[in-house]
Amino acid sequence: MTTLADVISVMDRLYNPAWAESWDAVGLVTGDPDQEVRRVLFAVDPMRAVVDEAIEGGFDLLVTHHPLLLRGVNSVATTTPKGRVINDLIRAGVALHVCHTNADNANPGVSDALAAAIGLRATRPLKAMPADPMDKVVVFVPVEETQAMLDALAKAGAGHIGDYERAAWSGAGEGTFRPLEGANPTIGSVGDIEVVPENRIEMILPRRKRQAVAEALVAAHSYEEPAYDFYELAALPSERGGGRIGVLAEPLPLADFARLVAESLPRTEHGVRVSGDPDRMIETVAVVGGAGDSEFDRVRSAGVDAYLTADLRHHPATEARAYGDPALVDVAHWASEWPWLADAERLLLDGLAAQGSTQGSTVDTHISTLCTDAWTLRI
């Protein structure tokens, strides 16, 4: 049996709530972690129609990109639309889980799916998040204890680099000390200067594991007072973050690029709006799934030919066009984020399968095709 807790465990690894913006509301909204999950529905919006689809389809879990309760409420009574939705979900036993800006900032995330939909290659974040804070531990050990110390530090979480573990550097030197009265030296005698052939060991580690590594180091070292240091490493950009920048397989005129976008995304009444010379050649593209006019400064700094996003407002767009770069391609908010649903579905099933035995095969998943874009008619 696959429980809701099993599913949330996978989703939180894919879309860590810690990656969400501070103003966001992500995670489990309704549901019991112990309840069984047999069917999962993925959708962009927790709208009334989507909730009805989940209830009528016998789904146990609805995963949406947009929050139902982004702003705080004082009541979930059925006298409000959101209150009715929550009550109906609970009565039907349908859990609701939200992956919003944590999915925007994930890798792969919402903008990765948008970039892939239009065929962008060699993508990188537009707004890179810093990598997890890292330390370097340096410890001096008698030469014969080097391998044992490496093993102890690696077991505590140090020395992991990409697909390698127990990665370290060591160099030979001499350690010298004079034990004072009251000391119980492993090597040497109280009052005498001692010189010992030692190795300097360096290993990197996630900062969150500093205490565990320090404890392992002291436990493994033969000295009464081992010499060691922790250095905080400079922050580097990670592969996570909002938006993506990439390159088309081959340059296209802006008009053709816009047609490619229209063919690659689900149809909406909003359609695809374009600002720029239709004949201008487009090769490098920045994309942001969802509303993106707050990122114009970064997009211009990136020097791309075109910017694909949603919800472009008049004044930011006209101001952006005054700079001459880039060309703008504006699509419906819902359409720009819908491609992510297939990624989330695939990654969840892969994660469940990897998590244990046959969990992945016991869960039936479905992507909602209901268009929940706000605009329903264009005249």
Structure characterization notes:
30% of the residues lie in helices and 28% in strands. The strands form 3 sheets. A 6-stranded mixed β-sheet has the order 5-10-12-13-14-11. β12, α9 and β13 (306-310) form a beta-alpha-beta unit. The protein is of the alpha/beta class. It has 12 helices and 15 strands.
Q: How would you sum up the major sheet?
A: 6 strands, mixed
Number of DSSP strands?
15
Question: Could you say which overall geometry the principal axes of the C-alpha atoms support?
Answer: globular
Poorly predicted tracts of residues: none
Largest sheet: spatial strand order: 5-10-12-13-14-11
Report the sheet-strand fraction.
25-35%
Order of helices and strands: HEEHEHEHHEEHEEHEEHEEHEHEHHE
Give the helix proportion (percent range). 25-40%
Oligomer: single chain
Structural class: alpha/beta
Q: Averaged pLDDT, please?
A: 95
User: Radius of gyration in whole Å, from Cα?
Assistant: 27 Å
Characteristics:
globular, six-stranded mixed beta sheet, 379 residues, alpha/beta, five-stranded mixed beta sheet, 15 strands
Secondary structure layout:
Elements lengths: L3 H11 L12 E4 L8 E5 L4 H9 L4 E4 L16 H12 L2 E4 L2 H4 L5 H8 L3 E10 L3 E9 L3 H11 L12 E9 L16 E13 L3 H11 L7 E5 L4 E17 H11 L8 E3 L5 E11 L4 H7 L3 E5 L3 H9 L4 E5 L1 H5 L2 H16 L8 E4 L12
Parallel strand pairs: 2-3, 2-15, 3-4, 12-13, 13-14
Antiparallel strand pairs: 1-4, 5-10, 6-8, 6-9, 7-8, 10-12, 11-14
